[in-house]
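A.,

Following up on our hallway conversation. Structure tokens first:
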């Protein structure tokens, strides 16, 4: 922890801006939007299937826009893109609050998903990658702490608002918080910290060099690494969506999973901090070999054990994988392709992740309903996770990972 204390003491402003970005990304995350769903169904006459289709379409639309905003981040300053993302999020809160019908609601939800879940997280990861070199892993770990903090703090606050003022006023208050609290604080932090513009090598690209995203897609080993990072969001989407069926399958009361989410948040918090130090000492390429092992162990526990303790153990092990995921992925792509185009790469990989997880409900629903039941679903997830965990061991000698290992091992010249 001493390394973290020194890092925070030397760069408090830029790290605080990263934590605020990931914390307020919760305004566009499913865990917070879901609190409004009962009121939205009643207000707009939607059933669960109709709202699910609307939400999925909005999420996919936001994902498809992410590569554009990632490239914009590589050409613009961090404060200017942060201002744009905040404007999208704030306007979307107002749009949802004032929506007269489902079409307006769709536009508002799309903006929430794009500005909050998409752009805020992207800006945090890219700005940490660009600003830090020697301590990039720790910086990414600190910035990622905003995710579990948001999961722990925001739901209770929003539920209190909804109970006191109703859902429309609550959504409007969220937009006002972005305008009056988040923006003034984060922009001041960024100015004081001198967060660099992500103007890109500048132009490796300007000379007509092939874009980093096209280079990534052309390389089989990089495509395989991308599959590794798709496993947790794909699996967790199916598991969380059908958590009620998991409780039914195991004979657990619903409160057991509520406790499991507390374990998930705590483990994710600890995992983010641990990963930062390990990235800086071992390198992201080496750490990739162990990334999915806790997740695989969690699925083994929940499949084989029936006691209520298994829910907490399962969720904690999932958190140990999920917490470091953003930091490992950002650090790895930075080591492989440099930080000059990290915005474009992260925008593209975010799109792939969201599009990939869209298949999870179909995958889960088919396996559960086809006669195999929830046990077959868990076994299938275990097989998918095991396959993903094996991939890095076959890529140790690939050129991109060798390059990443060399960069991670070389003396750092930066901050």
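Then the amino acids I'd put at each of the 415 positions:
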């Amino acid at each position: 922890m001493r390394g973290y204390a020194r890092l925070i003491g030397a760069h408090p402003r830029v790290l605080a801006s990263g934590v605020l970005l990931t914390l307020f990304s919760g305004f566009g995350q499913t865990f917070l939007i879901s609190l409004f769903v009962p009121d939205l169904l009643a207000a707009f006459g939607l059933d669960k299937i109709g709202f699910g289709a609307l939400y999925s379409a909005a999420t996919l639309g936001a994902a498809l826009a992410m590569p554009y905003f990632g490239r914009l981040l590589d050409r613009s300053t961090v404060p200017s893109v942060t201002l744009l993302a905040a404007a999208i999020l704030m306007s979307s809160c107002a749009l949802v609050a004032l929506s007269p019908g489902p079409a307006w609601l769709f536009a508002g939800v799309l903006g929430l998903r794009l500005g909050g879940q998409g752009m805020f997280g992207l800006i945090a990861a890219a700005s940490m990658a660009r600003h830090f070199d020697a301590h990039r892993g720790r910086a990414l770990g600190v910035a990622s702490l905003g995710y579990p903090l948001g999961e722990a703090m925001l739901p209770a606050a929003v539920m209190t608002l909804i109970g006191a003022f109703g859902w429309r006023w609550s959504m409007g208050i969220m937009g006002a918080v972005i305008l009056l609290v988040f923006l003034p604080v984060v922009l001041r932090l960024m100015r004081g910290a001198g967060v660099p513009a992500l103007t890109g090598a500048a132009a490796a690209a300007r000379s007509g060099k092939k874009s980093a995203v096209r280079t990534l897609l052309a390389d089989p080993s990089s495509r395989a690494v991308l599959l590794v990072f798709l496993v947790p969001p794909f699996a967790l989407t199916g598991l969380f969506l059908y958590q009620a069926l998991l409780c039914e399958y195991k004979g657990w009361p619903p409160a057991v999973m509520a406790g499991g989410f507390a374990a998930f948040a705590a483990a994710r918090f600890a995992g983010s901090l641990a990963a930062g130090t390990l990235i800086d000492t071992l390198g992201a390429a080496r750490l990739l070999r162990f990334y999915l092992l806790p997740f695989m162990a969690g699925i083994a526990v929940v499949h084989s054990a029936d006691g209520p303790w298994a829910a907490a153990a399962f969720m904690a092990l999932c958190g140990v994988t999920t917490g470091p995921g953003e930091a490992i992925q950002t650090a790895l792509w930075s080591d492989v392709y440099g930080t000059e185009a990290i915005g474009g790469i992260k925008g593209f990989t975010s799109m792939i992740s969201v599009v990939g997880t869209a298949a999870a409900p179909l995958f889960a629903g088919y396996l559960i309903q086809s006669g195999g039941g929830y046990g077959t679903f868990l076994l299938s997830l275990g097989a998918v996770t095991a396959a993903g965990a094996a991939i890095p061991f076959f890529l140790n000698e690939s050129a991109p990972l060798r390059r990443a290992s060399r960069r991670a091992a070389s003396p750092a010249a930066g901050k």
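The chain has two domains: 12-198, 210-409. Curious whether your intuition agrees with the design.

B.
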